[in-house]
Amino acid sequence: MKTILSLVLVLLSLFSCSSLSVMYMTSGKMEKLELGMSKKEVTHILGNAYTIAEKRIEEGRQVEVLSYRDIKGDEFYMFVLVNNKLEEWYREIIPLPSTGKE
Which fold has domain 2-93? Predict the structure, then answer.
């Protein structure tokens, strides 16, 4: 029983530490981003835990949108790359579900 409890405590501490590093990654490193950076530079700063949210050709330009999810899962950070250069980024907040008690 002690072994299982010890294992659970170790796992909880590992996950809590990794959560803090993910939170730091998405908020603290955002300040290092600059418009005009390449996709490689952006992913070097923010990491490779992104999803390609959109990819299209528009007026002869390749547009790709990378999406990073925050630690709580209720915010997405969207990075718009045009011809492999960072053109803009923004945050989308997912509304909380209604409880029906309003």
Answer: Beta-lactamase Inhibitory Protein; Chain:B, domain 1 (3.30.1450)
Q: How far apart are CA 50 and CA 89, in angstroms?
A: 14
Confidence of residue 76 (pLDDT cuts 50, 70, 90): confident
Distance from first CA to last CA of the chain, Å, rounded? 45
Residue 42 pairs in a beta bridge with: none
Domain ranges of the chain: 2-93
Instruction: Identify the residue whose tokens are 């945050």.
Output: 91
* CA nearest neighbour of 88 among 32, 22, 37, 23: 37
> DSSP of 27-89, one letter per residue?
HHGGGG--TT-BHHHHHHHH-S--EEEEEEEETTEEEEEEEEE-TTSSEEEEEEEETTEEEEE
Tell me the pLDDT tens digit for each residue of 78-97. Answer: 999 999 999 999 988 888 77
